[in-house]
Specification:
Oligomer: single chain
Strand order of the largest sheet: 2-1-10-9
Largest sheet: 4 strands, mixed
Radius of gyration: 17 Å
Order of helices and strands: HEEHEHEHEHHEHEEHEHEH
Structural class: alpha/beta
Shape: globular
């Protein structure tokens, strides 16, 4: 299976099943590339899936269970995608929002979503919601950075915790809630849009009617990954064994060249 389409996926297929195939058939293909990282970051499909599984094992070691809500307050990066899929592959429900959103909005989302864990981009992001974290007595705090912060696991420590435990794949159903994406809140309080694993897979199985990429095609990613459109497109493009290349408004003209 080199591509995924509605006709090609058996009933009940989830993103976890897709990644099990990708990691086997396209193990050495580059999945993600960040040319602006120091040093330049590149990771293959095989390496990426193993890392996602390790992070998922780390979450399981912290006591995360299917159905638990996990807030992810961070912006575009390869580690965002790893955290996203790691939470989904434990059966947890993730709640993504930008790291630079208004602190009041982030605090509201933490409370309203019932999140019992928080993955923050860095120490600065964690500090912006520290009062709500203390109010809710959140103890499972993780960082996508390698900064040291008392009471939180940084990215390297999170990986190490995962290496100490075997990942246990949950039985995922397409009807299970996968993510809650909050609206901008411009017309009042943000509203949580609940998407199931089946909702996410519908995009993966049907976006081929718009674009037909080939394995190895390079795709620039610039929209926020917590945005539903970007997220659906990334899932689809990765299911086609494309290479996602991270860019920014400042760099996109040069990166196109």
């Amino acid at each position: 299976m080199t591509t995924v389409s509605a006709a090609a996926t058996p009933a009940g297929t989830t993103l976890l099943n897709i990644w099990q195939v990708l990691a086997e058939k396209f193990a050495d293909h580059t999945a993600l590339r960040d040319p602006h990282a120091q040093p330049v970051f590149e990771i293959s499909y095989g390496q990426l899936f193993r890392r996602i599984q390790t992070l998922a094992a780390g979450l399981q070691a912290l006591g995360l269970r299917p159905g638990d809500r996990v807030a992810i307050f961070a912006d575009n990066s390869p580690r965002w995608l790893m955290a996203d899929l790691a939470t989904l592959f434990t059966g947890a429900v993730n709640v993504p929002r930008s790291a630079v959103a208004d602190p009041g909005e982030l605090g509201y989302i933490l409370r309203h979503s019932g999140s019992t864990a928080l993955i923050a981009q860095d120490v600065k992001t964690l500090a912006r919601v520290r009062s709500v974290v203390q109010e809710l007595s959140l103890e499972r705090l993780l960082l996508l950075s390698d900064e040291e912060e008392p009471g939180a696991l940084n990215f390297s420590q999170w990986l190490q915790k995962g290496r100490e435990r075997r990942y246990e794949p949950p039985r995922l159903e397409r009807s299970q809630l996968a993510t809650i994406i909050y609206t901008s809140g411009t017309s009042g309080r943000p509203k949580g849009v609940m998407l199931s694993h089946g909702n996410l897979m519908h995009q993966v199985e049907n976006l081929h009617v718009v674009v037909q990429p080939r394995p190895g095609d390079k795709v620039l990613t610039i929209l926020p990954t917590w945005h539903s459109y970007e997220r659906a497109c990334e899932y689809f493009l990765l299911s086609q064994a494309c290479m996602l290349v991270y860019t920014s408004p400042r760099s996109i003209k040069q990166d196109f060249k």
